[in-house]
Amino acid sequence: MNVLAYLDARGAHYRVLHHRKTFTAQDLAAAEHVSGWNVIKPVVVKADEQFVLCALPASQRVDLEQLREALHARKVELADEKSLGGVCADCELGAEPPIGALFGMPTVMEESLEETDHVYFQAGSHDEAVEMPLADYKRVARPRIAQFGRP
Predict the structure, then answer these.
(1) How far is CA 38 from each of CA 58, 83, 118, rounded to the nearest angstrom?
(2) How far apart are CA 22 and CA 104, in angstroms?
(3) Closest Cα partner for 52 from 67, 36, 37?
(4) 3-state secondary structure (DSSP) of residue 75
(5) Is 25 helix (H, G, I), strand (E, B) or coil?
(6) What is the DSSP letter of 87?
(7) What integer pLDDT is reported at residue 95 of this predicted model?
(8) 41, 90, 102, 108: least surrounded by Cβ within 10 Å?
């Protein structure tokens, strides 16, 4: 199921935005003229052999040690693109939406995203994005909230 069908099935309020091709979350922020603090960057990690989708502001990086502690995991590492190829098959590589349930994995959201009311993220392609209220994102993504991002 693609992200738009997923959002529709859950009654989410959102807008689809079309923009020039962007390949990073910060580029998406620039293309949409919004702060990187409002753009969700998805990062997939492997926590004790389970994939977990991390959702954090474009302007932050994952602190793996903080994330390991938050997840109560023994080991957390970034997932490599090779292993993700089959997991996110309906999306262009690098344009995955930050909703782990689409790919059969849990989502953990960086708590600093709670400081905004609207979020933006890629919709599965490099030239299409979604804008939606944070409350709707949280309702459809059902993320666990934790502190694991750093500038």
Answers:
(1) 8, 28, 7
(2) 25
(3) 67
(4) coil
(5) helix
(6) T
(7) 87
(8) 90
